[in-house]
Amino acid sequence: MRKTGCQLNNKGLTFVEILVAVTMLTLVSLVFLRCISQTAFYNQRAREKQSALNLAQSLMEGFKAYDLGSIDAQFGSSIQSDFKMYNLEGSAAQSMSGTGSYGLNRVKINGVEYDARISMTEYTPAVSSVVAKTGLVESDIPNKYTDAIYCGDEISKEQKGIYQMVVDELKDATKVPDMKAADRTALTVDTLKINKLNFLNASRNTNVVINAGKVEVSVDYDYQFTYEYETETGSTKTYTSTASTYNYLFNATDLVMNCFDNSTTGVTLGNVYLYYYPAYNSNQGGQVKCTSDVINITNNTGEDKKVYVIKQHNRALSSGELAICEGSYTPKVVQSGSAITLYHNLKENLSGSGGSGYYTSGSITKKENYLDNANATKASRTQKTLLYSVNISIYKTGETDPIYVLNGTVNAR
Questions:
Q1: Contact between 171 and 191 (Cβ < 8 Å)
Q2: Is the dihedral of CA 45, 46, 51, 55 positive or negative?
Q3: Model confidence over 350-394: pLDDT tens digits?
Q4: Which residue, among 326, 150, 138, has the nearest Cα to 248 in the 3D structure?
Q5: What is the pLDDT of residue 318?
Q6: Would you say the pTM of this structure is higher than 0.85?
């Protein structure tokens, strides 16, 4: 009898099949191990970058806390030396290429050593039609964290808003209906004919309001103007405006230094600094001619405050124009509220010839000529940069490419 059924294959896996399986397992393992290795590498680099960031920020805060003399004394030597700054320690700190460029080697953070390269240059932001903010007059050492330090742009930025209001009024057909249409269309701040424009009894009030928790500075211009224009028929007429007020509030984007607001820091207000550009009784250089320039200081702190009022050289004016403007400039400082001690250079003629007058009203202890260029003991304080740009590059010791680069500014205290 013939048997039927399935025949079992008892041969097992062949050598080729085993070899293929082992090869596939090896390839999968290699890919997996490579992923693990890359993950570990990127995690390590991320930790290094975070450490470099922490180091850069610590160095930046350290440079902000010390005055420039102390920084240069510690890092400005050509001889390598150990250093300590806050929680940072390192060795071989030295000047790299003169004042303002330093090399800090083997700085330890989280048990890892890094090298740092720090460069400091004068802060020169781009400002249209105005010379960059260098060469400002310096007073006593300001403290960025406790003092209110205001230093607005050159006066052209303040007064640009007035010129824009003039243009808007002249372009208003309900007010100046017969102006030549082509002239009205083309009229802008830049095309405004300054020689046809005349301001009548314009005045500026700079208002400094000092509260224990916040200090604000604003500017009010009261003005009226006449403007000579051509009509469609070719005749010449003069438009006389109504009295108007232009308000300009200083804010963080307008300042070289910082506004004071302790709502986040909780620190106590120290001194108040106002670096300002005079509003002259002259239209030299296309300025708004102001018959009076008043600085109103309201002290609501309940205690005597030191206030530094320092007039700046408007570099849009030539030396001859500046001499004309300074010769007739007599500002007034008006105090209200608690008493103030006023440090100032209002008697100094910025053109270098003769003196200037000023008036005060209220409870003011005056410190005159505190910043006078003619005073030899104060001469070194004038025409000095107030702010420096700082670049901090962090390297892993022995490497040439930076792990992290941090840019910022520090106060030239």
A1: no
A2: positive
A3: 887 666 688 899 999 888 765 533 333 333 333 344 567 788 898
A4: 150
A5: 83
A6: no
Residue type, 210: I
Residue spans per domain, the chain:
46-122+389-411, 148-382
Given 3-state DSSP classes, what are the helix, strand and coil percentages for the chain, each rounded to the nearest 5?
25, 35, 40
Measured CA to CA in angstroms, residue 158 lies from 78, 153, 161, 316 at distances of: 46, 8, 6, 14
Read off the tokens for 358: 């000023």
What does pLDDT average to over the chain? 76
156's tokens: 């052209």
Cβ-based burial of 288 (10 A; exposed 0-12, middle 13-18, buried ≥19): buried
CB atoms within 10 A of CB 182: 10
Going through 289-367 in order, the beta strands assigned E by DSSP cover 290-299, 305-311, 332-337, 340-344, 359-361, 364-367
Cβ atoms of 76 and 99 closer than 8 Å: yes
Residue with structure tokens 């243009």?
167
Q: Please tell me what DSSP assigns to residue 378.
A: T
pLDDT tens per residue across span 289-314: 899 999 999 999 999 999 988 888 77
Q: Residue 72: name the closest of 412, 394, 402 by CA.
A: 412
Q: Which residues pair with 274 in a beta bridge?
A: 150, 309
Of 68-72, 77-81, 169-173, where does the model show the most confidence? Answer: 169-173
Q: What is the CA radius of gyration of the chain?
A: 34
d(CA 229, CA 239): 8
Look at residue 339 and give its three-state secondary structure: coil
